[in-house]
Amino acid sequence: MTSASRWVFGVVLSVLWCATGGPAAAEDLSAQRILERMDQVIYGFDDQIMDVKMTVVDTDGSSKSYQFTIYQKGAQQRLVRFTSGEVQGMATLVESPTRMYVYLPGFKKVRQVAAHAMGQTFAGSDYTMDDISNPTFASRYQAALDREDDHHWYLVLTPKSGENPLYPRVEITVQKGTFFQNETRYFDEKGRLVKTMSCSEPKDYHGRSRYSVIVLKDARTGHSTRFDILDFRVNQGLKDSMFTVRELQWSR
Amino acid sequence: MKRASVILVIAGLCGAARASDWTDKVEFSGYLQSDLRYVIEDYRGPRPGEGFRFEMNRNDLNLRLKIHPDPSAQAVVDARFRFYGFNESATLPELVRRTRVDPYDFQLNEAYLAVRGHPFDAMDFRVGRLIESWGTADMFNPTDNLNARDFSDPLDYTAKVPNQMIEVSVYPTDWLTLTGVFVPVFKPSLLPPSASLGFAVETTRDGCFLRAPTPPLSRADIHRLQGLFAMADPCRLSFAPEVRTVTPPLNFRNSQAAVRAKVQADLGEHGGALDLSFSYFYGRFTFPVAYTAVANLVPSSQNPDVTEVRYTAQMIYPRMHVAGADFAYSPPVDWLPGLFGEVALIFPEQVTFGLAVLKNGVLQPSLLFSGVNVPRTPFVKATVGVDYTFTSWLYMNVQYVRGFFDEFNDRYGLHNYLAPAVELKFFEDEWKIRLAGAWNLDDLSAAVFPELTVVVVPSIELTGGVWAYLGDTKPLDPQSYAGRSKFGQKATGRSVAYLKARVTW
After folding, report:
1. Whose CA is closest to B406, among B181, B149, B161, B93?
2. CB within 8 Å: B171 and A246
3. Does residue B2 lie in a domain region?
4. Which of A56, A106, A111 sits opposite B158 (nearest CB)?
5. B249 CB contacts (<8 Å, ≥6 apart)?
6. Which of B206, B329, B442, B482 has the fewest CB atoms inside 10 Å of its own CB, making it the most exposed?
């Protein structure tokens, strides 16, 4: 199984986390409700299509870029097609958190992706399969309000009972009014900062505003991955049939 | 003038729009690859001491064009130009022909049309020159019989021989896929260049007879046959072997067909993911199986004291029915490995091998040999494997294989293999080391292929490695057809070091 096939849609998660949304009415919200609203802003569309350029930046400043297109419907269904690099032609499909497939053009074969590959990254980026396969927070984490100011809520997330996400502690900065996710910090089981995700440079995409740049930085190595959203479209009428193995077979 | 300018602008915009529409419907991709190989031994060739030379100096240009004239239709053309890089001219007149000095060929890998959702929403079909891949295992797929294998390049072990097919897939539910394939014309597998060494007669450096391939006969018959030559002076024997294959006639009886039902089993939220397939194939085994042989002993026309043995062998492609099943299971927790497996129950056509010895064209009744080479008894070929990702930089895959690609339960039998592969990644996945091999558990011979791939920049890879065969080149038991080392025998190929450069777009 190639490394690319083990890489799963972290960019989708990141991009969607830095989602746009319509103006939100002022209301007295619990931390959990804020988290739910943030997820809802990200996934509040029937479907989404994103053209993304991913740039992996090494600590010495060298970089490499790959491009791909993400098709998403709801919170679970996701199809990613790689359009550049040595993995051009490869595609990955998430039907559900427990069922993922990859199309390998060199073998002309669709292959199931196993759970043990969840910790794999792609092309040295800082995203793992687990980042992508479980995109929403509210379903897995319990939120507590750490503090707030005029512009942001600062939430601390811990796993809900029965859940076992990759990061036992997450800190999220949510922008008041828009419920944009501005910054996210991930911690390991020992409380050490693992990585930080930041969103910036808002841009208009066909009438919808969203951050066009997402940067994920590994706190341990200084290594970073940058996503540039080249295009973003919502409510394109994507069918459920697009997120099936049939679609992978069709597109080979 | 102003109206003309407006018209020109509109025409230009329309033209641009049409051009934009056209490019949206076309996908163009491909790769360019150079492949340089050097033989790193001198004992696996046709003559002792031949080796330590360049074996390959090849360049490939692969072009893939996909056209979508309609959202529910597509046409795919995948072609390859191959430039071999070795001069084939041997005479002065040939030096005026570039194709002799710089030979090349053109291959059409795929050329087909595909339609989705017609005539029914839940139906797709493809017609044309296709390469199909069935099964869940890696490389060793006993349930994958629609395309013959292309082993003309042993290092490109996933390659297949394309063939014209009609494929229909039906999706009655979101968890069930039914597929039927019809292959009108049989095509055999391509063998490695060293395959002819499997029929070669070995001689000493002086040209004296040393050893001939053992035919698929009983031990007693082989003993009798070897006795025939034991009395002769080995330096006065000359062999001229010729091996022919019998191509099946072009009729419906020799067409091939297969059906498969693929199921996505729902094991619940905490049960993991399980895919199952059940298949049936009717067709022919794509590797040739020994069928007949005639050995005609005549005095050499150049030297009457020398006996020339004109050995003509025939090989056929036996029919078979294959009932197959495969599975792939991904457990719900990341500390368990993934499991996959395939099993094929093969019902073969019986093949009886016959060998006749003639002297000066006269049949010798006492030297007629016959025996079952492939019994009618059904047999099983299977692959079972596990894979696991230990860390972000370490992945391992191990498979047990029962029955290699070219094994058909003939007198050579079915052997057992272990195929491990370890992948290590470094420097942000830019350096990938792959350590893989195949080990015959019965005769302990092996093929090992360590490899390093460096992604110089995205789309450009440099790959260097070694492909080595380990095992005895001499038969382990000269009086048994099965007495040869799987990877040790010369017919398997040469041990090489290689360097490849590839750019993909």
Report:
1. B149
2. yes
3. no
4. A106
5. none
6. B206
Distance from CA of A19 to the nearest CA of B (A): 28
Is residue A2 in a domain? no
Residues of B within 8 A of A113 (CB-CB) are: 330
Is the minimum CB–CB distance between B269 and chain A shorter than 8 Å? yes
pLDDT digits (tens, 9 = 90+) for A28-54: 789 999 999 988 887 778 899 999 999
Distance between CA atoms of residues A109 and A25, nearest Å = 49
Q: Are strands B237-245 and B307-316 parallel, antiparallel or unpaired?
A: parallel
Using an 8 Å Cβ cutoff, are B134 and B260 in contact? yes
In a domain, A225, yes or no: yes
Q: Which domain holds residue B428?
A: 23-504
The pLDDT assigned to B6 comes to 47
Beta-carbon separation of B124 and A64 below 8 A = no
Q: Point out the residue among B335, B388, B429 whose CB comes nearest to the CB of A124.
A: B429
Residue B169 counted as domain residue: yes
> For residue A117, what is the nearest residue in chain B, using CA coordinates?
B389
Torsion B476-B480-B484-B490 (CA) sign: positive
Which residues of B, range 205-234, sit inside 8 Å of A by Cβ?
Answer: none
**Percentage, residues of chain A above pLDDT 90:** 30
The closest alpha carbon to A100, from A78, A119, A120, A83, belongs to A78
**Does B15 map to a domain?**
no
Residue of B nearest to A224 (CA): B428
Answer yes or no: is A42 within a domain: yes
Count of domains observed in chain A? 1
pTM of the entire predicted model: 0.86
Least CB–CB distance from B428: residue in A56, A113, A250: A56
Domain-embedded: residue B220? yes
Q: Residue B112 maps to which CATH number?
A: 2.40.160
pLDDT tens for each residue of B242-278: 999 999 999 999 999 999 999 998 787 778 889 999 9
User: What CATH number should be reported for the domain holding residue A211?
Assistant: 2.50.20.10
One-letter amino acid of B69 = P
Torsions phi, psi for A41 (to 5 deg) = -65, -40
Report pLDDT for B11: 45
Would you say the C-alpha torsion A104, A107, A113, A117 has a positive or negative sign? negative
The predicted complex's ipTM stands at 0.81
Q: Measured between CA atoms, how close is A151 to chain B, in angstroms? A: 37
The shortest CB-CB distance from B334 to any of A64, A118, A121 is to A118
Indicate yes or no: CB of A115 within 8 angstroms of CB of B171. no
**CB contact, 8 Å: B385 with chain A?**
no
| Per-residue model confidence as pLDDT tens for chain A (252 residues) | 444 445 554 555 555 555 444 444 445 789 999 999 988 887 778 899 999 999 988 777 788 888 989 998 887 788 989 888 888 888 889 887 778 898 988 888 888 888 777 667 777 777 765 565 556 788 889 999 999 999 999 999 999 988 878 789 999 999 998 888 889 999 998 999 998 999 888 889 998 878 899 999 988 888 889 999 999 999 999 988 889 989 888 877
Minimal Cα distance from B157: which residue of A? A107
Asked whether the beta carbons of residue A1 and residue B387 sit closer than 8 angstroms, the reply is yes
By Cβ distance, the residue of B158, B336, B423 closest to A107 is B158
Full residue range of the structural domain in which residue A242 is found: 8-250
